Batch of 2 targets.
Target 1
Amino acid sequence: MGNIFVVSLSIADLVVAVYPYPLILSAIFHNGWTMGNVHCQISGFLMGLSVIGSIFNITAIAINRYCYICHSLRYDKLFNLKNTCCYLCLTWILTVVAIVPNFFVGSLQYDPRIYSCTFAQTVSTSYTITVVVVHFIVPLSVVTFCYLRIWILVIQVKHRVRQDCKQKLRATDIRNFLTMFVVFVLFAVCWGPLNFIGLAVSINPSKVQPHIPEWLFVLSYFMAYFNSCLNAVIYGLLNQNFRKEYKRILLTLWSPRLLFIDVSKGGTEGIKSKHSPAITTNNNHAEIHL
């Protein structure tokens, strides 16, 4: 069930590529925004949807992994299909609710420094502080707590501190956890500078803002949105199944006829597999006992 949140995170990363990024490229080519205020508001809204959707989905993934590894006996009840769908809907409802106040505050504006319509940090001091705390610090605190508890359990498993426990951890579970942990760390690193700049500016705009170099703000902004491109790379580097699929997709693009060969081969192997016993490998079922 945890894979549903991974798919949801991927959708959040793709949102910016569908609408805002083409408009940003247009603004760069024209050296200014030429699409009008309506497109500016829509672009800013979708950017916020992508950003907040990403952090909320990362938080949901961390909670899911925490329950799966640290409370495995209750996991199936907590994350059955119905509950998981409810959690997913709640994640996106909270995301939309978190963005709507921007329209009332008027904080979605075009910023010529970054050629995009985005959240303006200087519109409202109190609102900017709220955004940084609710949309960044609180979720990252929850994620940090979940992953620290998981790390503690993994260390206990490694050193067999809790031999009396009947809980088991599979090697695949640990690999999946490490993948999502890297996703979290890179998100914090990429988004941290922009959020801390916003927090510093909101606390004392008149004194802090003039001392922040434009290049630093631009660098922190594009580093933040570059994070949306990193998750696919992380999955490819750390997950064997993703690596195989990436390789198959690239080979198919290079030689489309391979697609038809794979399809026919898959159908043949599917028929053969019905007459042969299932074969499992030790790697897929490797377990670490506590």
Target 2
Amino acid sequence: MGVSWASSITLRDDAPASFPAKSKENRHVTLVNDAVPAARSTGRKFRAFTAQHLEELTARAGLSPGDRLATRAVATVLPFRTNAYVLDELIDWSAAPDDPIYRLVFPQPDMLPAADVALLSDLLRRDAPRAEVEAAAHAVRMRLNPHPAGQLELNVPSFGDGRVPGMQHKYDETVLYFPKQGQTCHAYCTYCFRWAQFVGDADLKMAGSDVEQLVSYLVAHPRVTSVLFTGGDAMIMGEPVLRRYVEPLLALDQIESIRIGTKSLAYWPQKFVTDPDADAMLRLFEEVVAAGKNLAFMAHFTHPRELEPLMVAEACRRIRDTGAVIRTQAPLIRSINDSAAAWETMWRTQTRMGLVPYYMFVERDTGPRDYFAVPLARAHEIFRDAYANVSGLARTVRGPSMSATPGKVCVDGVTEINGEKVFVLHLIQARDASLVGRPFFARYDPEAIWLDDLRPAFTDHFPFAE
């Protein structure tokens, strides 16, 4: 397998400062065209960097001693992990700490309330006992809504002798499963709504390893047609482990699709090209497709620069050659991708690479949400402006969508009805399937960032409140 990289597109001249190319001198994105034979590189070995490396890495970014301490304080609450590929290939260190990829993976001193950061900084400064630091960090975490949208109270099903570990079942046709061995990532995003999975608190984790129980649950619920493996990142697992979860599903006629939620294409594309089990993993994908299942690779790309490295193009090509479909999604994040130019470039590039734009999400109501959130009115403007500049092939994308308690709520636009300015919304997915696709209205609020900030228009309640 191999590819030639023969063309480029130029980024729009109006790209904002929060959307710099990796090199300030060379504002081009390399794209893939034709596959031709090429030598296969052995690649580099994976090397992770964690909180113990923050002092050195933030010094490289030019942070003052006070800001470095504050960053370490935030990292006692929110998880930090990155790798050499992200550091060497994606971050523009000449623009750090304002570089969007730097902000994507490194905690920021003002992500948490100043009082909390001051308390934690003081504990670190005086080298307080680890237990004291962890207790203070835990108290902060509990105020950050670690499990949004009722995902523990409403989504974990009971079956047999009790609840099913590692499973969520919010929509009739789809089950989410969190393999125990997939509860980490190649690197963590600072905005991740699954952050509670990575902080070492067993009470906050969702994880399962009983494959027989998963299969028994599916058989007992024949309306389920799709299984989504998530985490963490399912692609942190090696091929033998992933096979243990996937292979039993191939014999279930009711299962039409298997989805894999992953950031690996952006953070470690070597997984599918040069890692020791890369070929075996792709053979597993081929087996899923050969069994008559739709294998959907739910790839998380947050910024156009993540699509630039040649290794990403090769990884995407190899995955697509198995018959799998790569769908792309990401949240809209302030200071990282909050411009129409960024999204337009991502969708056009992804379409040229054979990927399918799928979702623009609204940052969920958890973790440092206030730091990253974009008002819904502005989110729709960004979506609309980017959507207007892409071809119909890229208009498979939906959004901006809130994964809220009642379901995925899409902001369709802003209009005026009987003299009142309102948001037009609908449910893409819903706990109550009868509500899917039904438009409803909310009073216009330019400051609203989440469903809970909205108030019904023309009625006293939203349809899902019935």
